[in-house]
TrEMBL record:
The lineage of its organism: Bacteria, Bacillati, Actinomycetota, Actinomycetes, Pseudonocardiales. Keywords: Methyltransferase, Transferase, Ubiquinone. Signal peptide: none annotated. Transmembrane segments: none annotated. Residues 60-159 form the Methyltransferase type domain. GO terms for biological process: methylation. This is Ubiquinone/menaquinone biosynthesis C-methylase UbiE. PANTHER family: GERANYL DIPHOSPHATE 2-C-METHYLTRANSFERASE (PTHR44068:SF11), ZGC:194242 (PTHR44068). It comes from Amycolatopsis saalfeldensis. GO terms for molecular function: S-adenosylmethionine-dependent methyltransferase activity.
Length: 217
């Protein structure tokens, strides 16, 4: 008997939501993209602000989901280039439709790929973010090493994550989310050569979102 039948309707729904958050697909995936842009607006905006992007830079958003981060990076680089890397064909499709002029002008370059094998050359990017994604990545050491590889020396990378204790209380995270202690991620970043320069919080209290602002050696 399939596991979903044994789970009951509520758990089946939550497991489906968790799967869609980790890899949005099809029509429900488009709805998830819209939801992500609304629900994560403050966090994604804070991540781009923490990145302190300069005009003309080459920036990267890994796991851009609904595409809000791409939009903000396009504005901030203002004539530079933005790369977006996504696992999800549905999110890539959404971004192509949302930013046709920037794609045609080569200002936005969209890549199907994964954080652990970025389809970009060494030292090709000066500023990068990934927000709400590492919960879906089994090997963060490999992912951070890959991010360090594509960053130019002195390049900045901002990692945005929900507070693990607060996220553990959300009913969908038990369905496959990897909720790692912030210290573990800080250690993995430093090991990969991404020095944590700042640890910002977005929001109030213990549930506030974490932004780890790093710089490549
Ligand atoms: C919860 S959404 C977050 C989207 C957006 N960054 C935000 O904060 O609203 C996670 C996104 O990461 C993508 N993703 C998951 N694992 C990935 C990986 N290993 N490499 C690249 N993208 C990944 C998913 O396809 C999904 O669009």
């Amino acid at each position: 008997m399939p596991q979903t039948v044994l789970m009951g309707p509520r758990k089946t729904l939550l497991a489906g939501l968790a799967r869609q958050l980790g890899h949005p697909r099809g029509l429900p995936g488009h709805a998830v993209g819209r939801l992500l842009n609304r629900a994560n607006r403050g966090r994604v905006t804070a991540a781009v602000e923490a990145l302190a992007v300069r005009r003309g830079e080459t920036a990267l958003d890994i796991g851009f989901g609904g595409g809000l981060g791409l939009d903000l990076l396009l504005r901030a680089t203002n004539g530079g280039t933005v790369h977006g890397v996504e696992l999800s064909a549905t999110m890539l499709d959404r971004a192509r439709r949302a930013f046709p002029a920037n794609v045609a002008a080569g200002r936005l370059v969209l890549h199907e790929g994964t954080m652990t094998a970025l389809p970009l050359p060494d030292a090709s990017v000066t500023a990068a973010i990934t927000v709400n994604t590492v919960y879906f990545v089994p090997d963060v050491a490999a992912a951070f090493t890959e991010i360090a590889r594509v960053l130019a020396p002195g390049g900045r990378f901002v990692l945005g994550i929900g507070d693990p204790a607060a996220m553990a209380k959300a009913p969908f995270t038990e369905h496959g989310f990897r909720l790692r202690p912030v210290e573990e991620l800080e250690h993995a970043l430093a090991t990969a050569g991404l020095e944590v320069r700042r640890h910002d919080r977005v929001g109030e209290g213990l549930a506030a979102f974490h932004l780890l602002v790093t710089e490549a050696a």
